[in-house]
Amino acid sequence: MSKYGQRTWLFVLAIFLVFLLVGCSEETSDTEVKENLNFRITWKAYSGRGEAINKIVKGYNDSNQTGYQVTVVDGDEDLETIGKILPGTSIDIYMLPYRSVQYFGYKNLLENLTADFTVEKDYFYENLWKLGMVKEQVYGIPWLGHTMGLIYNKELLDKAGVDPKTITDLDALVLACEKVEASTDAMGIGLVGAEHNDISWMVNQFIYGFGGSLVSEDGTNVAINSPQSIAALDFYKNTLGPHAQPSWKTDTGVEVMDAFRNQAIAFEIQGPWGITDIWKSNDAFETGVIALDDIGLYSEVGPMMVAIPTTLEEDKKEAAIDFIRYLISEDAQEQIMNGEYSPEHDAYYPFRLPVRRDMNEDKVFDDYPEFVTFLSGFNAPSIDVPVPLWQQVKEEYYEAGLHQVMVDQVSIEDFLQTIEIQGNNILNSER
What we know:
This protein has helices at 3-30, 48-63, 79-85, 98-106, 126-130, 154-160, 170-183, 197-209, 227-240, 253-261, 273-279, 314-327, 330-336, 390-406, 412-427; strands spanning 35-40, 68-73, 93-97, 133-134, 137-138, 141-145, 149-153, 187-189, 265-270, 287-291, 299-300, 304-307, 340-342, 347-349, 353-354, 381-382.
């Protein structure tokens, strides 16, 4: 090749390399690593539930144009732990129980999201949306949750000749328990009586169902000391109690689930996990669900919400809000029902429910039709912590007092009077 030809060839090669480098530069820019947003959930990131959430988050990271990617990090529901890290900058987005949203919103540690979600609030059940509010301001957005249902053992009911369709009120439930006990070796229903968080939400479902309330409508005073609450507690202890598992007065929800799994009781009041627990059992049996509002009770609800701290920089705040909008989109809500993977059973099991009210007829429930029954509980919920300061009432007086009632250490009337006095002292302490 001549020198002229060599120079021409080198020139062409140089031009080619320039274009190649420019192309590589553009490609590198397109795939540039995005800045990180830490999303603290209430479970371990590597757990089955953490992995299920990671899959939902991956859908966001693969499609968003904000310049940020979301990373799921370990967390829990411990109020004290969250209170220590919330004022800092290590966590950008929090998954929190509604009661924690109210608590930290009350303390002005969460961003006011009222103006950012004016349209989206219509996606949700009105009472559910209100659980993320403090003084008419929105601090948490519902994402996933649970309600309670009356779960029954179909085999035991068949042996007793009980048609679940006839259980339309509490009197019919008591009659069904009597028939089960007369025809099988099982007791009727699982109850909780221990000094534990479970006794609070369990009993409250009856108090609300009987027309009572924990606090006044404006949340400023204790309202539980009422004839309705007396009737509810009397029914729970003295009418249903004799039909419960023998150890109920010292049992939590864990022992109730054990009794139901072992077919020692025919009914239990539990969330969706009460069904999946039986699916995972070596001695599985067929179950069914009756909505609590169908028998005159208000279901306890446990919505997990998404919130952001007040310390977030403006650009990160915008990206976090974009991520929250994705979590409550139809697509992301449907993915909740994909469930968590159980390596022991090589199968996926739902662990929570979507909370948008347009999900109740969605095809996502085709594989889990019994789970649709739980959704009605979002319409008229039993609120375990109706105002932020009730958490203190609950921990210091309510749980212990309920247990004392169940084991005959204090009368129902004296217990309610104590809660009224001590509860009002706490509710009025910061005025």
